[in-house]
Amino acid sequence: MADCGEPDGPGNKDDITRSKNEGKELTKEEKQRLRKQKKHQKKQKERKNEKGPSETEKDKTPVSLLPPPQPVATQKAPSALPAPASAPIPVPASAPFHSSPAPSPADKPAKSKAELKAERRARQETDRAAKQPGSSSSGIKTKVPLSELNPVVKRLPEHVQVDDPAVVKRLAKKLERQQIPLRSDYGYKVSLFSHLHQYSRKAPLTQLLSIPSTVIHPSIVRLGLQYSQGIVAGSNARSVALLHAFKQVIRDYTTPPNEELSRDLVNKLKPYISFLNQCRPLSASMGNAIKYIKKEISNIPSQCKEEEAKTKLLTCIDRYIEEKIVLAAKAISKYAIEKISDGDVILVYGYSSLVNNILCEAFEKSRKFRVIVVDSRPRLEGREALRRLVQRGISCTYVLISALSYILPEVSKVFLGAHALLANGYVMSRVGTSQIALVARTYNVPVLVCCETYKFCERVQTDSFVSNELDDPDDLMVTRKGKTQLENWQDVSSLGLLNLVYDVTPPDFVDLVITDLGMIPCTSVPVVLRVKNLDQ
Amino acid sequence: MELQAVLMAAGGGSRMMDLTYNTPKPLLPVGNKPLIWYPLNLLERVGFEEVIVITTKEVQKMISTDPKVKLDVKMKLDLVCIQEDADMGTADALRHIQQKVKTDVLVVSCDLITDAALHEVVDLFRAHNATLSMLMSKAHEFTETVPGQKGKKKTGEQRDFVGVDGTGKRLLFMANEADLDEGVVIRKSIMRKHPRMHIKTGLVDAHLYCLKKSVVDFLADNKSISSIRGELVPYLVRKQFSKSTNSPKVIDETHQNLKKNDSNVNLEIQISSRDEELLHLTQERSCWNDHRGDMSDAYHGGRLRCYVHIMDEGICYRVNTLAAYIEANRLAPKLFDEPAVHPSAVVSERCLIGADSIIGASCQISDKTSIKRSTIGVSTTVREKVKVTNSIIMHGVTIEEGCNIQGSVICSNAVIGRGADIKYCLVGSAQRIEPDAERTNEVIVGTDQLMEI
Q1: ipTM above 0.90, yes or no
Q2: How far is it, in rounded angstroms, from Cα B405 to Cα B375?
């Protein structure tokens, strides 16, 4: 390890930081070199600062190789990495990155796991304390490699691996540990989508829970029920409801003795999130909101009193909603109204709270336009959009998606809402949106997607199969004149009902994305994401 | 904590006085278990850990002292006593325990025997943020002959008219026949909001209600309401559509009306919760609506909502009449898995015990007896050559030799003399039937009970 000494250092470091800043993926050798450099730096620092506890340092370096590389370790590493230079206590933070374990781990069984954990925690505390007073210069330089090095240990999420029994077993064990019942899949799944969950609305998760729910907070149970029954539907509504429920959880929370609020509250939220995931898979906006809250909670200083911490968290949540949802909607309306001119015929698909908002605002500002609402089964959400627009006085036309090519020659613009915007510029939205974008492109009608920045997601997807949501297949059954043709669809062995919820639209079909940061082309989404990450 | 369970066990059993003059209704044996065991078992199975039981002093004494009354529940029972002669209605009882009520309540009556899935009722309560959620069931005709009944049963006595919307979950209208003078009157505001209403009459109210905490506080302020079923529920159902609950200016009006002590307004300010604006934002952004075809928002903007879950299949009985009591005894064995013949009963070899009979603990059944479709209580002695068919024998009864008992109810500690022939009779508590008596379709009770006038 000490061989790659000084001569390597400065030159290659520049190379590496340059490539990082350009956003290229680091190659294996570069990563290894970086690791060695860091280790070397630390060793030098140690030799300079502390001659005394050199035995402890020697103890620590082999011992720290004991914990096997886990994803948990990578999360701990980011917090340990930011201040390698300024930590007075030697921080062998590059240890978790060792893919090849060093020769000495086996001969230190004396240190128990609890002691290791305590040591690690103590180290992190000092890191955090040292981080505050301004190790910002080294922080920034090492922060960029952080976000790039994180994706090293990436795992497929469990909800897209349902056909792998090992993953399902792992999920079941995790839920059992958290005392949450496992919701069983329902009905025959079409083979292309057999890797996704498919639940029935008639079998709610609550029938497996005890009625005065003690394990899960009542407001979370209520929220889960509302999600699974579709009472709260739509990306924005789900996020707001989630944050509202979290506010109640925080209000009712009391720190147990010998625990810290910043750690314990995050652990309390984990089973709730699993429960909500079982009721209905989390949306990208919800995921971002949860990440934000977890970050806020863990950033609460340990000397903060409980009441103060709670009020701080509640105001954070309120501010998040106000900034990212309410004000963002206002900003987007302002930009979008510029794009609506008098005499326009605007086509909207399904129900998007943001697009509805825009149209109502534009109508208030006395723009003259009419709207065509395109709807599709089985959700028929367009009826609700239609109702709200007509209530305001906007003249609307209503068609089903099968009449799309018939109606498109009349249309001058298409406004679409989004469930999430992926990192490669693809738009994830209600199933049918990509069809609309495709047909609009062939008719040369501009397609504008409206999306708040908090829905931007770091996932990358190029097709709608890999990650999607399967809704209750019984929704596809319709009763006409007293007869339900598909009533016994389960008895027909060769018949499968597929009720997809989302699809992805390629950026070639989208002309403009209107966000609260401005009007950007679809391909600039990764830039926005990177800027957001740097800010945080 | 989400829900608190309240069990109403102070009722007198006014419709089956013959049975209850000696034994209080909550302790009547059904399938050899006290009646109060059934709702307690239901609550325990669902996951409740403590129950507030409102009962009389007599019942409380009997529960704690009498060895025959074993409740066998692991939950913590918080017994609240009220005076028997205070004539408290169920709503009065709720008002009495208002201090103990910290969250929403689930009110159950002690005479409910059911295997319903409670989560259906509670899910309606949770998902729609309802003020009231209740359980009802399709009524079954009672097929057993009721002892002591003279003449045909009066049909159409006190029907309930229940109006539900198209989904069958939202409760729009509830009235009892007794309250209606000439016909069913439905307000135009209801018809405008819910043009399709299904009115059902053949429903049994299970007397299982989920109520919001604000309703209990409202009861504390309004002392005029004394019965949940008779007054509170119809009031809440009516209030869903009253004008004052739907106007958004209610909060301003409260300041003006505080002096007037307007009961309508009080209920509304209590219903509104914290973070009302976030909930409002959620509803605004969500694309769900509970009805379609008109221009109004979800729930028509109303904040008070009442829901009902109507069971199609399954057992649901309210044991408040003799006929229901007999029917419940027939079906009770299906609800629990204990063996039909209690292990401590001494049953001799040569007796014939049908598969659907229940023999209680410490019984003595002698030779050559035949017991079919019957329930024999605890510590009962049955001598030789006795035929018991279709009957309910309670605790501590002695049946001498050669008796023939058919379709009857024999209350506790009675003695049936030798060779008696009892058909479709109700023998009261501690009565003696002389030997070789022949009684058909009679109610035999003590003279002290007849002094009720």
Answers
A1: no
A2: 12
Q: Does B276 touch chain A (CB under 8 A)?
A: no
Give the three-class secondary structure for B362.
coil
User: Would you call A234 an interface residue with chain B, using a CB distance cutoff of 8 Å?
Assistant: yes
Which structure tokens are listed for B179?
Answer: 């309250």
- How far lies A272's CA from each of A172, A218, B126, B290, in Å? 15, 10, 17, 27
Residues A93 and A146 sit within 8 Å (Cβ to Cβ): no
With beta carbons under 8 A apart, name residues in chain B contacting A225. Answer: 123, 126-127
- The pLDDT confidence band at residue A101, using thresholds 50, 70 and 90, is very low
Contact, B8 vs B24, CB < 8 A? no
Contact residues, chain B, for A215 at CB < 8 Å = none
B123 touches chain A (CB under 8 A): yes
Nearest to B278 among A221, A226, A240 (CB): A240
Searching chain A, which residue's CA lies closest to the CA of residue B45? A210
Q: Do A222 and B48 touch (CB under 8 A)?
A: no
Interface check B275 vs A, CB under 8 A: yes
B288–A383 CB contact, under 8 Å: no
- Residue environment code for B27-56, b if the CB has 16+ CB neighbours within 10 A, otherwise e: bbbbbbbbbbbbbbbbbbebebeebbbbbb
Sheet holding A413-417, edge to edge: A396-400, A369-375, A344-349, A413-417, A447-450, A512-515, A518-520
For the record, the structure tokens of A202 come out as: 């008639």
Residues in B touching A244 (Cβ below 8 Å):
275, 278-279, 282
- In A344-383, the residues whose Cβ lies within 8 Å of chain B are 350-351, 353, 381, 383
- Name the packing angle between helices A136-149 and A525-535 (round to 10°): 140
> Three-state SS for B306?
strand
Q: Is B127's CB within 8 Å of A225's CB?
A: yes
Sheet hosting strand B203-211, strand order edge to edge: B76-82, B50-56, B3-9, B104-109, B203-211, B132-138, B306-311
Residues 84-113 in B contacting A (C-alpha not used; CB under 8 Å): 106
Would you list the DSSP string of A462-505? Answer: SSSSSS--B--GGGG--EETTEETTTTGGG-TT-----B-EEEE
The dihedral over CA atoms of A358, A364, A366, A369, expressed in degrees to the nearest 10, equals: 40
Cα–Cα distance between B179 and B165 in angstroms, integer? 22
* Furthest C-alpha separation in chain B: 81
CA distance B350 to B354: 13
- Measured between CB atoms, does A386 come within 8 Å of chain B? no
Residues of B in contact with A236 (CB under 8 A): 285
Residues of A in contact with B45 (CB under 8 A): none
Q: What is the pLDDT of residues A166-186, one digit of tens each?
A: 988 999 999 999 888 999 898
More confident residue, A290 or A154: A290
Quote the CA–CA distance of B18 and B446 in Å, as a whole number: 10
Cα A334 to Cα A352: distance, rounded to the nearest angstrom: 17
Q: Tokens 């498109």 belong to which residue?
A: A408
Give the number of residues written for chain A: 536
Closest CB to B2 among A204, A218, A237: A218
3-state secondary structure A402-418: HHHHHHHHHCCEEEEEC
Establish if B117 touches chain A: CB-CB under 8 angstroms.
Answer: yes
Tell me the sheet residues that pair with A503.
A429
Tens-digit pLDDT profile for residues A302-325: 888 889 999 999 999 999 999 999
3-state secondary structure at position B24: coil
CB contact under 8 A, A384 and B284: no
Q: Using one digit for the tens of pLDDT, what is the confidence trace for B249-279?
A: 444 444 444 434 445 545 655 555 566 888 8
Query: Distance between CA B423 and CA B406 in Å, rounded?
Result: 5
